[in-house]
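Risk register update: the risk of archive-format incompatibility is retired. Evidence:
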Amino acid sequence: MKKIKRSHLLPALAILAFYSLFMVFSACNSSTSPKNGTLTGRVELVNDTGNPELDPADFSGVQVVIYKLAELNPSVVNVYNRYPSLGFPISQLTEFDHISAPPLYSTITSPDGYFILDGIPRGDYNVVAEKEGWGFSYVLDCEVSDNTGNSTLSITLYPETIMASVIMDDFDFQADHIYRFNADCVTTQESSVTIERGTKLLMDDGVCFDIYGYASVIGNESDFVRITSSGPQVRLNRISIQPSAQVSGNVLQGIIVLRSTQGLQISRSDIEIRCMRGADSISAISLSSASGVSITNVIITGCDGVDTGSIQLYGSPNYSLVNSILASNTQAIKSRVSANGTIENVTFMDNSEYDVNNNDQCEGLIIKWCDFVGSNTALWNTYHSAANISFCTFEGTDGIVNDNGRYSMVQVNNCNFDCTEYAVKTRVYYYGNTEEVHIDASMNYWGTTIESEIQQLVWDRFDEPTGINNYEALLGVIDYQPFLTRAVSNAGVQNN
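Archived output:
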């Protein structure tokens, strides 16, 4: 057998090794490099106003923009997955807002309305088509696949409607249409407005839309009426239901309010607000001199009002808040002069100041089966206010503080406490009294069965320096005995 010379073998081996290495790197690059796709489609401009002056000469000039999917609040998602009776499923429909989102890719339509966006990393995106005078339209959760399976969209835009200052006749807010409020707008008592879910109300900074006549919200119950400010740094004032207004079925359902000062303001009694999403506002819901308002299955996050709550109540007794999620606000609820409220089956989470600020003549508040997680103070009860709390869980800095204003009182039973500072604290001055005022905080689980540790979790007159001014009027005493030796099994939010 003829031997191959070593000098001839080495170059051959080197070539073979190089080729093998090249194939390995090629395979790695092919499998790990992102595959791009193409997004194509057509935008049609449809003039349904009956005004021939708005007929488009062509369909060019529409900006088509691709955005990342909105991040769903993981805390809200987790709470809903655990307790499906609270709130409703959030999605791109409720969370995406192109006004405050950074764009990724964009293009402009041709005269016949077609567009193409090439070289897009495959994945899921939100797509927005927008043109001045024609508003905008969303295509949510749109998949961009690789170049072997292009994504094709069909989008329709309608002329924007610029709202007048007064609506005197019947008016329909149509789904898939944009209504722009450049200034305050009111409806007369004789007028009737119908608002279809899927419509969008775009309101300039500080603008109000006040309804004095008849109003109804209709349409696809899986869709929402979208009420937002016209820019990321501005806030609309409110959309209000005035005392003279009539609401179909006394129900307002399926509303999104973003970037507002007072949000959805209710001044008429016996209204139900159901399945509402509020965010990034000072207040998302405001009740003013309205009795018997029911707030059900709402989700409110990111409201930063220091002197108000994400839900603000004034002079609105007999209200109820049930089956809802209030998270990551400064104050979740602030109530004044609003007696006999009921808060049941609500998750309060990571509200930085107060979950509930029961302030100024708010007697008769009942709080039951709620979770208070991660706040500075779960309940602040003050100034001629009274609250009865039962079957709740408290995990935060302070649980219940009965403070400052005169003659306030709380009662708390059958609750579980896991607080880093105080579970229950009172500092109320009872001027003119001479006897101790006892707060019933019995039959609770304090996270410990050691009495000395429980004593560290309560603060009353015995923890105050006796030398302070008016010490003799600090008569509040917390009665925590008898206490429970195990956690209350049916405390906190319930699936119902």
